[in-house]
């Protein structure tokens, strides 16, 4: 019946290796043609996905250069909007990593937007590690002027004393920079004895806290004794360096000593980790599940295991901690494997911890309202999706897309999943299926060419009623006899269903299969923490 209908409909079919006549399509990296995304979309993709790992058809270096070019063009067009976007993505927790936002802010500073970049610095660079990354990027891009030095000084001067003590204790150095380097560069000033004590501790250690006289330009500057004003956390850090096990545990519980301040010889002690767990930040807890299991702290039925499970089940805590879904996915995938990708650490996974991570992955996306639409999810599992890494994680785009599909399956009551390359393959996902198993199944699928029209073509061939097609892809499509947008329009005309298309970009390149001039098509960024709710709103017709 569908074929009979199509005989009376004049629809132009264009092979994907040719552009659609009259369109704005451009060559993608695989030899096919796709729609270019504008610079603002590219900026958003870069801020969320970065360019680490590259893709099969475009190297990491090429993607980084192209994305940096988009950042520059956005800054040239509207620096206020660009810096606002950088801050918004960074503060909202939408991105798996903060490094792309830090780099983009450094580019803004390098282009002369020093005052605005300095004002945004404490919002984007919330930790010492972020600040070191910014410093290294600035050094490579432009060097230091008075405005940027003042901005770095304000970073130290603007934090409460307990917060700055925590930063200098926990985050010592990165990217060839340390707090000592930055304090000597920026010269923050203060009349507060406690803040003076922190600065002097960073630069010279505990021995620099006493009264001092320093010769400067023919005169002598006197500095008072500030040793009694040193924040207790920094004094505890000094004490821990030579402390015994019992003392270290006391310092953890009484003074909040973080793991980074614990001497190496105590880091295989279950009781030390038990003390750390009591106040351990959520992100640190998730990162250290394997370590705590390997040393015997997390065991089936233990108090520590129950503590971890309860915290992972608390959606409010997950959101307040800005724990990104990708961080949970990485932790789940790694934990289920029972061995790290690097080093010799191994462990016997605790089943209830794995289940808690699965649930936390869904909770980390926040509240997602179902669209209640007939949905077909197409997972691109072609060769290009099996290469590179998503946002610098150990996961390939095909693994990450399978995990996103699992979120949709758990949300939508009428949802069908298929995998495609140059041919169709069913990929059912059960409501009770383990996250790690779904990811592993996706990685085991056969590779092939990329034909992103197949979800629509297959739905038309099988007579499936579909309200929303969701295609998770890198948009490097080239193998089909018809472009995806043409296939969608054929489906609409053949069935009478005003079907929508959501394209989830899993790589930060410059292409999409969605026609930007079609209001029934939406391009979103893969592993944007807000993506599932945005997608469902579009599917419902709210957007």
UniProtKB/TrEMBL annotation:
GO cellular component: cytoplasm; ribonucleoprotein complex
Keywords from the UniProt entry: Cytoplasm, Metal-binding, Ribonucleoprotein, RNA-binding
Alphabetized InterPro entries for the sequence: TROVE2, TROVE_dom, TROVE_dom_sf, vWA_Ro60, vWFA_dom_sf
Primary localization class, coarse: cytoplasm
Domain TROVE: 26-373
Annotated GO MF terms: metal ion binding; RNA binding
Subcellular localization: Cytoplasm
Superkingdom of source: Bacteria
PANTHER family for the chain: 60 KDA RIBONUCLEOPROTEIN SSA/RO, RNA-BINDING PROTEIN RO60
Family per record: Belongs to the Ro 60 kDa family.
Name of protein: TROVE domain-containing protein
Source organism (scientific name): Tautonia sociabilis
